[in-house]
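Hi X.,

You mentioned you wanted examples for the new student's onboarding notes, showing what a folding record looks like when two proteins sit in one file. Here is a clean example. The first protein comes first, with its sequence line followed by its structure tokens.
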Amino acid sequence: MRRYLQILLVSIALLLLPSAHSESTISVSTSLDTFSYDLDSIHLKLEKLSTRWQLSPFGEGDLLIEQLKAKRLIITVKNSDTESKESPLPKSIKLPFPITIEQSEINEVIVVTGEDRQIFHNVKLNFEGNAKTLKLNLSHATTPWGEASAYVNMSATKPFNLSGDVSLKKTNTDYPYDVKAQLSGNLNTINIHSTSWLALQDGKINLLKSATKQAGAQIIIDAQLELNKNYAIHVRGQLLELSPARLGNYPEALLNVDVKLDGALKPSLNAALTITTHDSVWQQQAVSGSVTAQLIDQTLEQLSFAVSIANNQMKGTGNISKENMHLAWQADLPDMSKLDQAYAGQVSANGTIDGAIDNPSATLKLLAQ
């Protein structure tokens, strides 16, 4: 989710940039060493800027920028002493005249938010804006998460209704992906929808934006982000018809899972997580399960889970983080054959898992027949 939001931030900042830039370049000069501009809580700085443009003296005075090149764009999101207060949206985004950018290339875009710093390379885009609408087509950007593209169509008046999409593709990884998300809403609330499929290709599990006959599951995500002081977030996810056997050397099963996440991104991620299964089977045995936890930054706190396969049950509670984990669990398995035909008998066990994730320690009490 944060990957889409970072790319959306860059897109909106770039979308607002031409109005600032145009006010400073209606002159004979076509190059600047540096150019800075403040947009409320965002500071923009362009380095090594050159343009080729035409200004029509007729009508509203259309500005056509045939080419815009820059070595670097630095987008700094300012910290505010009044951060707890919500900043009201302006009534409109006013361009001095209609602007069209046919071709824009920025070698490097740096987004600075507090201590966080994200870098995007080879950013290419075109833009069209007037008193009614602002249209940005981000045709390419190399990001920390892969190759990205985006399209945003936004109204120039409050509440700045918008629509568009964001795409991400990365192939040189253990789990390749090529996904796309649709955007809607406005600058108060942004809605994100994504549908993708899991499939085994070239020995790797891929996440794809298009359905294939080899798909082993479908993933549907609907998210809502409120652009308020806490950046409230609500996510509804579905993992449908997951067939592990189609994704590798796994047992036959058919699983359907629902995921809910409700919370806020600021000052750090704090959200309630709920995972439940429905209409699921494991090797022809009914499966049910649930997980609840509080997701705080990268830690799962107040974790509680329960899973049953036929009459076999397992449950546990605890907290999980990278550096420190404590998990207490209990398993009552009166019929092991329901888990795998290769096993028989019954098992009753309980134990704990403690320590760092990469170096845990465990205790176990086991009673088996």
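Then the second protein repeats the pattern, sequence line and then tokens:
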Amino acid sequence: MNKYELCVVLSAKLDDEERAAAIEKIKGFITRYNGTVVEPIEEWGKKRLAYEIQHMKEAYYYFIPFTGDANTPNELEDQIRIMEPVIRYLVVKPEEETAKTKKHEPAAEAAAE
């Protein structure tokens, strides 16, 4: 199972119950497509958008870590794309810190100087 991170931006027009229902629906999609939600889900709250989207200047941000097979992100994106309360989303595979990565960091810093 691979690790993934999902950032979801929900409409500011939603009340608490509607936001909770949208997050539960997303969690359901993750489990439906052979994934597992890794708790805790981070609610970043209502934030100002960098630019206006769908006539909104603010939105609610959520960060959902999960594990799944290679097809899980694609299937999840297909479902999230058509959800009305979602105005933006992004699924990424986080970088793993390995000994190889740590070994190259000092060399990169020395080269920058």
